[in-house]
What we know:
The chain has one domain (20-458): 3 Solenoid (Pectate Lyase C-like). 1% of the residues lie in helices and 36% in strands. It contains one helix and 43 strands. The radius of gyration is 23 Å and the shape is elongated. The chain starts with 22 loop residues before the first helix and ends in a 62-residue tail after the last strand. The model is unreliable at 1-10 (pLDDT under 50).
Amino acid sequence: MLVSVTLTSASNLSGSSIHPAALSALLRTAKPGEVLVIAPGVYRDLVLSLGAQGQPDRPIIIRPESPGSVVFTGSSSVELRGVGVTLNGLRFEECTASPLLLRDTRSCRVMNCSFIRCNPPDNRRTHWLRVVGGAAADNRVDHCRFEGKTADGVMLVVDGSDGKMPTQTRIDSNHFALVVRAVRNGMETIRLGTSSYGQSDAFSVVEGNLFERCSGDAEIISVKSSGNIIRRNTFRGCEGGVVLRHGYRSRVESNYFFGDGVARSAGIRVHGSDHRVFNNYLQGLGGYSLALPNGHSRFQPAGHEPTISAVVAHNTIVGSLGPSIEIGGEASELRDLRPTNCTVANNLWIGPKSVLLRGSADGVRLTGNLASDVVPARRQPAFAEVLAPLEVDEDAVRRPGNGVGVLLSGYRLGEIGPADDLCGTLRSLTEVPHVGAELVGCRRHRRPLKPADVGPRSAPVD
């Protein structure tokens, strides 16, 4: 997806490129649609507090003369406030402080920026990009690169304040790579909220991003708020998975997960109520592919909510090294409440290594699921077995081939099911549904993402 900023009738406010230290004063008089161009250079130990009033459709734009020619390093950090401001093409490299903070911003955008190896030498906890504030809304982070985190903290955080989460944050078309665990817990690649904001609606959308070797935490994306969407992302060789840790009514759909030989690679884990997990393709994962674990029956502020009324449907799981689906895992005296009123339907499991089900299915409705190419010792009576002809495409994705009418035998979910499939083809609410993430015979136009599809090089700098 190519994204550009319209600069119609925009002008360079300063008339020439400027030192970034002049930004704060110039922004006080900047008008919507104006552009501030930063002079090329490496800027060390520069702390900026910026505020401006643009418009959502006519932002004030801050950018370098050419992509990547402005580098902030050392203890440099930027805090942005205001409305309608776009930061385009900046580079934060080897910063020892948290590089970028958006505080209570509205309709602001961070695009084509790079965050590279920003690691304090003392392992001090720092977040690379943080969107914070109960008044924050309609912000976007896109076509950026985040690479090489080896110190405590999160690459990208959306955090609440004053009892409210930022709303309508869009995180898309970014490349996240090479996160190495430095602490036991707290190095998620993306975190949406905290335990205390689990019941707050954030309506964040994380889509079209590539995650490669992001292994800082068991939760690569940690969702601790409500009403979020995680879709059309690709995960490769990450030690961890997408975890709906707190909250309600979030969706995880049409993502690709590839284990790529990483032992603790994982898929999707669900806590909380009324979540939907649809159309995901999960291949060769070392840990769980899908998990509905036990929760606390007694309130725990930072504990694990019970899994209630989740629908996990139309996913395809191929060659799992760990359990394809784990139900009621992590049980203990405190985590004593099993998943309840959940539906696991119309999923396709493809062996031969898969352990189809770990745990008891009590409290979970298993229906319309099929298994193919499963070794006899791992057969499960809860899954109908079929011999489905499958093809391997150029992306190493196993897809239904010709003559797979046997896959047209799913359970009708009706309006609680997905509207389309992994390819983007509409599903019928009236016909017998196809099992798995793809409709038989669909044309693939949502492929696994590659580095050329995301990050600063995948969109023009205006």
